[in-house]
Design goal:
3 helices, 4-stranded antiparallel sheet, single chain, alpha+beta
Length: about 120
């Protein structure tokens, strides 16, 4: 799905979820966004949602996979500027592998959303 993000040399992974998230996880591009969180957050979220919906739709079109989930996280960078940043991961829940974020509702150090293809259809 995101072939440009594949590692050059295959690695050793603990399970299929670890491999999938290593191959496709990425920080969302934030070039040109304002530094202030009030102006930055809505634009960053919009970019993330557009990106994950495109990925989820492509997974359905190319592979017939409607079970892929996208995880979007927002948090402040651990830098002097402490800019609001975002990360996106797409992965398929697997019955024999722990969830990507166990206890998603208990996350307190970032805002995290789990997004499905069905969610994307409500935003079109």
């Amino acid at each position: 799905m995101l072939t440009d993000l594949c590692p050059k040399a295959p690695g050793t992974y603990g399970d299929r979820l670890a491999e999938e998230t290593t191959v496709n996880g990425r920080g969302m591009t934030d070039y040109g966004l304002p530094a202030a969180p009030d102006g930055r957050a809505p634009l960053l979220v919009r970019r993330c949602l557009a990106y994950v919906c495109a990925c989820l739709r492509k997974a359905q079109e190319e592979f017939g996979d409607t079970q892929v989930k996208a995880y979007v996280s927002l948090s402040f960078a651990a830098t002097e500027e402490a800019l609001l940043t975002s990360n996106v991961i797409c992965c398929t829940p697997l019955p024999d592998v722990r969830p990507y974020i166990p206890g998603l509702d208990a996350v307190t150090d970032a805002a995290v959303a789990e997004i499905s293809l069905e969610d994307c259809s409500t935003w079109s």
